[in-house]
Write a structure and sequence with these properties.
425 residues; six-stranded parallel β-sheet; 15 strands; Gfo/Idh/MocA-like_OxRdtase_N; NAD(P)-bd_dom_sf; Gfo/Idh/MocA_oxidrdct_glycsds; Gfo/Idh/MocA family oxidoreductase
Length: 425
């Protein structure tokens, strides 16, 4: 072909291409502008550093905006994010005190939600309405009704949501789940899980609000209470924020670590789109352990200290598996180096929770911890807390998502303050 004809034909061909394939423009390491995923962050406290660094390692991502009600934390994040961006481009991050202004930007493709639990529903639903894909930290929802609304909004606006249940992207848990699902320890009849205490009422005294913090906006849709530094620690503090232990803001360890460990139980028992059928709390008033829950035609799960913290013990008719982030143990040594059979069914493979989200955004597919997965897990957490608080055995219908008790059904939701409303989408 003559050079002139080649240039003419190439120009005509490229004119008809809306998104130029990466391999055409420069090999596998070349990132076309159409492949770039511009991120906005909502909530930039202690957890956000892990999220930012993990996502920044992916060549497709770029941070372009962030929002927080704490001006000092927002300033710190912008400085760190600009340093991260400098390795990819000279794009500067813009900050917003009100997340709704951030969501109005058309150049943002996806939102990372790392706000306190009581904000998750509004942040996710508003992001979905704005046409953004979402990564939302666990537990997905503070209440059962909020979780279902989040599922409905994500589905309505055809968004991709990854719940931050990152244990699904770790070897120990994936291996344990594959072994259990394929019957390598027989039929599981008992599961013991140690994750700490249920939620409690907040009895912290009021303190003067720092001038860098919009406390009214921090409380947001929850019932108002005065500021305390445990709820929103200053930037100098190394402690995890205490809001997670208190009703109206978090769900105690039942939700904080339960969102990880109950999630693995749901996954192992193939209950990702359903849930337990009963929750039975201990008789002793104020008990912090002793609840158990059951599945129809399934095992009994005990919330107890079985000897290991933040860990699960699966007991089957033919063996036992114990798993945490730091160990994977078997009572049958043959399982140590097991070679799965070709007929075995394997779970969704992910060894990088952030990359799995990006891949799902590109393919418009469900990630390893989709919004429905996140909702069903947070429902277990919330239902367990309700049973502990009411001190009543409760039957749960996972299809109708309702209890057999009117008081418990009222606790599936919570009052929203002022004009905030998660139901309108």
């Amino acid at each position: 072909m003559k050079r002139g004809d080649f240039l003419k034909n190439t120009a005509l061909a490229l004119a008809g291409i809306t998104i130029v394939p990466r391999h055409v423009l420069g090999g596998n390491n070349f990132l076309a502008p159409s492949d770039r995923i511009n991120l906005g962050y909502i909530g930039v406290g202690k957890q956000v550093g892990t999220l930012m660094n993990g996502l920044a390692k992916l060549p497709e991502t770029m941070i372009i905006a962030a929002s927080d009600v704490d001006q000092r934390k927002l300033t710190r994040f912008i400085s760190s994010a600009n340093q991260v961006n400098a390795k990819k481009s000279n794009k500067n991050v813009e900050g917003y005190a009100d997340y709704r202004e951030l969501l109005q930007r058309k150049d943002i493709d996806a939102i990372v939600v790392a706000s306190p639990d009581h904000w998750h529903a509004l942040h996710v639903i508003d992001a979905a309405k704005a046409g953004k894909d979402i990564y939302c930290e666990k537990p997905l929802a503070l209440t059962i009704d909020e979780g279902r609304a989040m599922c409905n909004a994500v589905k309505k606006y055809k968004r991709v949501l990854q719940t931050g249940s990152m244990q699904r992207s770790q070897y120990n848990f994936r291996q344990a789940v594959d072994l259990i699902r394929n019957g390598y320890i027989g039929e599981v009849h008992t599961v013991n899980v140690h994750i700490g205490e249920p939620v409690k009422q907040c009895d912290l005294p009021n303190m003067a609000v720092p001038d860098y913090l919009d406390w009214d906006m921090w409380v947001g849709p929850s019932l108002y209470r005065g500021y305390h530094s445990d709820l929103s620690p200053p930037i100098e503090s190394t402690q995890w924020a205490g809001w997670r232990w208190y009703r109206d803001f978090g769900g105690g360890n039942i939700a904080d670590w339960g969102a990880h460990m109950f999630d693995i139980i749901q996954w192992a028992l193939e209950k990702d789109h359903t849930g337990p059928n009963a929750f039975v709390p201990p008789d002793k008033p104020g008990a912090k352990f002793g609840l158990y829950y059951t599945y129809e035609n399934g095992p009994t799960i005990y919330h107890k200290n079985w000897g290991e913290s933040n860990a699960i013990q699966f007991i089957g008719t033919e063996g036992k598996i114990e798993v945490s982030r730091s160990f994977l143990r078997f009572d049958n040594p043959k399982l140590e180096n097991i070679q799965f059979k070709s007929s075995d069914k394997r779970v969704h493979f992910s060894d990088n929770h952030y990359a799995d989200w990006v891949k799902s955004m590109k393919e418009r597919s469900n990630p390893v911890a989709s919004v429905e997965v996140g909702h069903r897990t947070s429902t277990v957490c919330n239902a367990a807390n309700i049973a502990y608080e009411l001190q009543k055995p409760l039957k749960w219908d996972p299809k109708k998502e309702s209890f057999d008790n009117g008081f418990a059904n009222n606790m599936r939701s919570r009052p929203y303050r002022g004009s905030w409303d998660y139901t309108k989408f």
